[in-house]
Amino acid sequence: SNSNWHKLAWTATEARLAGSEEHSGGSPKTVSRCMNRWGALKKDYREVKIVLGKSGFGWDAQNNIATAKDSVWEDLIKKHPTLSRWRKTPFPYFHKMADL
């Protein structure tokens, strides 16, 4: 079943990342942490995609960040305050996630 596949995939992900915290300095990568991180990445991807779908926005590939004139950002933020963080926050995984 699909849920069994998901369990196997997340367990394999946990196994593949075992010990990575020794290099990254982070915490051990459990199934729960991997799932939470993936959920956060999907949320971020959807938000950046919304920003880039609006008129006047572009993409700075060198810095992995959405770009627009100040007035365009201000209009967007008035309508969607939660998207304001993408004005200064890069998202280097955008194109990789778009390929998934």
UniProtKB/TrEMBL annotation:
Residues 4-75 form the Myb/SANT-like domain. Transmembrane segments: none annotated. InterPro entries: Myb/SANT-like_dom. This is Myb/SANT-like domain-containing protein. It comes from Collybia nuda.
